[in-house]
Amino acid sequence: MKLSVGKFRGFKRITNTFGQFQMLALDQRGSLNKMLSQFKEKVEPQDLSTVKKEILKALSDKVTAVLIDGEYGFPDNLKYIHNQAGVILSLEKSGYKESDDSTKSRMSEIYRKDAVKYAKKVGVDAIKLLIYWSDNSSEKVKEQQKQLVEVVGHQCFEEDILYILEILTYEPKNSKKESILNAMRIFSEDKYNVDLFKVEPILTESHFDISPKEVYERSKGKPWVILSGGMDIEQFKEIVKWNCQLGSSGFLAGRVIWKGAPAYINDIDLMQLHLKTSGVYNLEILKASAFDAIPFFKTPYFKGIENIQLTE
After folding, report:
1. Chain-wide mean pLDDT for the chain?
2. How many CB atoms lie within 10 A of CB 60?
3. CA distances for 294 relative to 31, 95, 222, 291, angstroms
């Protein structure tokens, strides 16, 4: 299996010594603003930057990588990221654009046209693009979403930077699993140049409804991690265990770890105390739950680090 030097270095920078992903998501914007509005009458952009900075100060030394956005606090917040943590930059605008047809489909947009080139220039280790996906959206919207993923993938190939694709589905609950797997099947095609999937947890009625082989076949065996979607820690820790048994290589989680922090926006000392106790506890629980995560190089796509041929 051929892999470029830049992408291989990206994988190494955002994983632990075993090749597992234990990553912190901190690119929330709209959702974080909503959380802060419960505790402050008027939320300013600086408030979002402050929360992100405090979370990085308290937790970035305990994760393999952090996912940050380019709008609130960047690049100044790089000063607060531990030097052993990889840095991932999100490319999409917060929220989505709704189609003007009857399907009301969701379309993703990037926040600056030269985002990939910019990410390479400033030296981050990977980029992440969030794509909204529904099997029931219009063909026109599907093609637009596919085109965006392909364009960004080509840019990442040209710049030799690791490409993480986050897939958010909006299907009825009983068909969400199928929609996630369908999206992974589509975007695992070579033309999209996706290196790592970030997906919603794969949930089933019982553990016999799906097998690791089925997930591998849909994703061509490419490595994938799960997001938390703001779940509570007690629920998510069990989901992490199950998804690692299905073949996940770890997690890229945010609010499940630090969602208590915004409550202390008016007292930063208390925010730090909360993050260094409850935040660290939540994170360590997830790391323990992901103990069996499959190293990226042992996924069926790579079949062992000895089978990776590095190319310039």
Report:
1. 94
2. 21
3. 30, 31, 11, 9
Coil/strand/helix, residue 106: strand
The CA-atom distances, in angstroms, between 24 and each of 35, 107, 135 are 18, 25, 29
Give the Cα separation of 108 and 70 in Å (integer).
Answer: 16
Which pLDDT does position 177 carry in this prediction?
85
Q: Which parts of the chain fold into alpha helices (H)?
A: 5-13, 30-36, 45-59, 115-122, 139-159, 176-187, 212-219, 233-246, 255-258, 268-274, 280-289
Question: By C-alpha distance, which of 86, 20, 31 is closest to 293?
Answer: 20
pTM above 0.85, yes or no: yes
Burial tier of 58 (Cβ tally within 10 Å: 0-12, 13-18, 19+): buried
Query: Is residue 49 predicted with pLDDT exceeding 80?
Result: yes
Across the chain, which distance is largest between two alpha carbons, in Å?
56
pLDDT, average across residues 160-165: 98
Residue numbers of the domain that contains 271: 2-311
The percent of residues above 90 in pLDDT, for the chain, comes to: 83
Q: How far apart are CA 298 and CA 296, in angstroms?
A: 6
Report the CATH number at residue 229: 3.20.20.70
- Three-class SS of residue 233? helix
Count of structural domains, the chain: 1
Per-residue pLDDT tens digits for 163-179: 999 999 987 655 788 89
- Rounded to the nearest angstrom, the gap between the alpha carbon of residue 194 and the centroid of all alpha carbons in its chain is 13
Assess contact for 155 and 189: CB atoms under 8 A.
no
Beta carbons within 8 Å of 94's beta carbon, 6+ residues apart: 29, 30, 69, 71
Mean pLDDT computed over 249-263: 98
On whether the CB atoms of residues 134 and 182 are closer than 8 A, the answer is no
